[in-house]
Amino acid sequence: MNENPVVVLKFGGTSMADADHIRHVARIVAQKKSSGHRVVVVVSARARQTDGFIEEARSFTLHPEPREMDMLLSSGERISAALLSIALDSMGCPARALSGSQAGIITDDNHTNARIIEIRPYRVLQALEEGVTPIVGGFQGVSFKKEITTLGRGGSDVTAVALASALEAETCEIYSDVDGVFTADPRIVENTRRLEELSYQEMQEMGEAGARVLHPGSVEFAKIKNTVIHAKSTMEPDGAGTFIHNLEGRIKPRIVGVAYEEKVALLQVDAENGTEMERLFRLAELFERKGLKTKQISFHPGPMRALSGSLVVPEKENYHIESVLESLRDSFGSVVRILRDYSAVSLIGTGITERYQYLLDSLELLQQRQIPVAGLQTSSFRISFLPPRSRMSEVVQLFHKRFIETDR
Ligand code: ADP
Ligand code: ASP
Ligand code: MG
Fold it and tell me: What is the pTM assigned to this prediction?
């Protein structure tokens, strides 16, 4: 039996963009194998292919059936897996492309946002046993009803880390177009720093708050067996990258980064006296039926026992947002106000709300610049604000300057 350590390598869309990129990825894989590892590869669809598929489907209807969307979207990752496998074979490195279903990724039946509930990686193990490199299409699985499912935007990261955990891999290396996780998105902020390491929870919160570099759902799987995630750059595979591992209980309160979600829809709900619970129930039922992915839900009793509250809906993760909002308007009329020109900007770090100063300083900065916010939410790892979309970059840069660049 081959006792070499297992390592899972995941390559994102920009890494698989065209034949030259795929050749480059194939060389990284072959090199890893020759350095004495059993290598399992997970790939994403080529850059912008998933967006293109969604656009094409929406040209027919604003609410395409989620099951059909999964048939469509999952094909992008299969194309990448097959092309990389062919490229590796041509270099004398035997490989075998597997769909999520063939790799044993079993999910629930929540189409377009399914959750992995079990992994039966027999064919992955069989390939490794034969000395063949398995190339798994990320972002997809199969439900108990034998339907193809997808795991939500950015879901190939989830496939990779879940497989790494199931295979008890040494590490899961996530290759993208940046050399790890930075203090903010280097695309919109100058003077960002690469973070050497992050705790699981910090990474999960960064991802939840919109930092695309690693899907927050993947971290849940890392926690199960303490799988080390190493975020790296495809173009500089020898760069230091960022280690995401179990640091829990070993760090003092700090701010590690600023993250943003550019397009959120904010739903503000007023309910009339007496009918509030029923309204809330009907609202939740509608969201469940339409498969709406929401974040940051808050409800509280107002005067006369009426409930008021708000929900933040990330637009990128809801390809059918227009049609859900339309049904909302039909069913709830003026009870629900829909605001679409807002963003979410978050400060992330362990124990962040243990220091009121962070909150006070950020409010002061917003006030000085006269930036209004439609909402504020905290958890013990995050403070999130909802500024107007037109001022999002300004807020991200302002926070980065104040809390990351000048605080050390
Ligand atoms: P892939 O296609 O490889 O999965 P993604 O586009 O999903 O890659 O994620 C990488 C992108 O994440 C980067 O290009 C960068 O613009 C963005 N990003 C957002 N926040 C951060 C951050 N804090 N650190 C690094 N990258 C970030
Ligand atoms: N291709 C999918 C997406 O664009 C999944 C991924 O890239 O991880 O969301
Ligand atoms: Mg990604």
Answer: 0.94
